[in-house]
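Case 379 in the screening queue. Each case pairs one protein sequence with one candidate compound; here the compound is magnesium ion. For every case the pipeline is the same: read the inputs, emit a complex structure as tokens, and attach any notable structural observations.

Predict complex for case 379.
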Amino acid sequence: MDRRKFLVGAGMGLIAAAAPISLSAAGNATRKVAKTGRLNLSFFPYELKLRHAFNLARYSRTTTPDVQVQLEYDGIIGYGEASMPPYLGESVESVTKFLSSLDLTQFNDPFKIEDILTYVDNVAPNNRAAKASIDIALHDLLGKIMGQPWYKIWGYSPEKTPVTSFTIGIDEEKVVRQKVEEARPYKLIKVKMGLDKDQETINIIREMMPDVPICVDVNQGWNSKEHALEMCHWLNERNCVFVEQPFDKTWIDETAWLRERSPLPIIADEAFQRLADVVRFKGVYDGINIKLMKSTGLHEAHKMVTLARALDMKVMIGCMTETSCAVTAAANLSPVVDFADLDGNLLIANDRFEGMTVENGKITLHDRPGLGIIPIPGL
Ligand code: MG
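Case 379 output:
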């Protein structure tokens, strides 16, 4: 299929074509503007090519399936995307099916965010990445209509963005050394763990970069409480700042046991999905890793930050391998988080957007309206 040809959602093309052409507010009949007054959805699959094979404790891959989305309202276009790492259970097929089942033309006011996103959430359970793609595109659209970037609409100071980490996967020593060289501009390194090379990887990084703080992501890879506690102490002595998802996401009691004893904060990632999990994990984890593809987008992610703060939990904002569209969307929330892991766009070779940048390791937001992204011509 020609990936540039957007698929129009069920029935929407017909409805949009049949909609009347409205006149400008002043009734100026000489300046007709083609306004459908409806939300029109279109989308197409777009395979993300990874610059390096991505090796985690439980699998390896070189591409990520993705669906690119656009929401149009009165000639203004908002962009969104669904990224589907295979372990999350969504696919191009499931996202296409979900998006095709939506009828967003029933909404003639795109500012009814609660109504629109509640409708989308109730169409079918799960499908979190598919739901996020609509939420992200809606935020881009509304920000463009208002002429402001979302971090401003939320009242956040762009100078308060955190540094973002650069991820080093599980790999052979030669590859790890190459990645550490790539990571030099960053002020925070994230290391994937959970296989038999945990200490070896940290030792290589410490030899090459003695002082940079390191976050550790185990991706559910440890299977002994005692080993995990020993590792938390070992990592704490090597200037590590937190440990993410040490155990299987179902190990609630074991995680609470580790959290009580660990000198490092324990952050929930795979175990953490939706807003209600924030309350459930108080006392089990020290903090949460919010990702738009899990939270169903920015609307719920924004509520998660507020709730976690009220419960005195740490907040991290992360991403999947995504284009700068979803990564920049998440970056709009970054001025109010403790940690950011927003390098997903840098791990792919075929980004379709220009968006937030990383300067001296720090997330840098721009003042374009909406999410702050512009499509790269020809992609
Ligand atoms: Mg993680």
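Case 379 observations:
- Residues 18-147 form a domain with the Enolase-like; domain 1 fold (CATH 3.30.390.10).
- The chain is about 35% helix and 20% strand.
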